[in-house]
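User: I'm curious whether this sequence folds into something compact or stays loose and floppy. Could you predict its structure so I can see for myself?
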Amino acid sequence: MPTKTIHEEIPQIIRQATGAADIELIEVIQELWSGYGVILRYALTGAERKRVVVKHVRSPDQLQHPRGWNSDRSHRRKLRSYQVEMAWYAHWSARCDSNCPVPRCLGLETRGDETLIVLEDLDESGFSLRRESVNEAELLACLRWLASFHARFLGCRPAGLWEQGTYWHLATRPDELAALSDQPLKNAAKAIDRQLRESPYQTLVHGDAKLANFCFSADGAKVAAVDFQYVGGGCGMQDLAYFIGSCLEEEDCARREAWLLDSYFGFFHSALARRQPAVEARAVEESWRELFPVAWTDFHRFLKGWSPGHWKLNDYSEQLARAVVRRLGY
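Assistant: Here's the prediction. I'll summarize afterward.
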């Protein structure tokens, strides 16, 4: 008799994970990028929780990408990203506390290239709002989450995760580098990557810390984060630069840069004092502040090769990148 697919056994897996007597599909929350699966919300009967969110990953029958990047390398990177997310929820996520909340993992199942993750529904847990833009309180809540996350995992080895976090890091993006027409930036790419990798203060980075991956409380004062496919080792500035670029217009990025960095490091000092008081926070700050424009330039390098007409390729990013490239002698 053929083995049942995970899809056929979703109800049974959810019941085992939650103790529910019955379940009902409420909605499809979203399709996963490039057709690799779906995120679903289920209602539970007879369980402590009323709802759960299920992330069901499966390889598509036909590779597709909205921007045409359909290589075998891209496919293998995506499959690896879901293995990393499984490892994150199996071995790491429980280490996050109320200062950097993430959904609690209730169940994991994997068969070949097919995986299922049963998660706490953050809507039910008080993080029901999503934002396409943020006010100052919401922006600060995200900076606090990032600072707390980076302080929590400062010095940790990313066992089972990406050795280098972020979905754009150079080692996994040779095709985008080859497509890059900015020759000085292309020449500097390895040196930029090396500076980030050789920072003496390594932590875990979320790896895709865009605004869409934060869930807000009703008053906007607290956030939780989702989507840990690209979590791994790195410098905290990689998350910070990417997050700022995901939610602020060019003029605000430039005008508020000092305030954003000061706010982040204020939260970071407090979090490190709670978590790792023996670490000299000033030394980490000094090192990471110098790497902020480097981290920004690293993502800029990826974006210019991946999608040359992207809206994030603005004058602020160009100025930061040109200064970094010049400083490196390219």
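Summary: The first strand starts at residue 22 and ends at 31. The chain has two domains: 1-125, 130-330.
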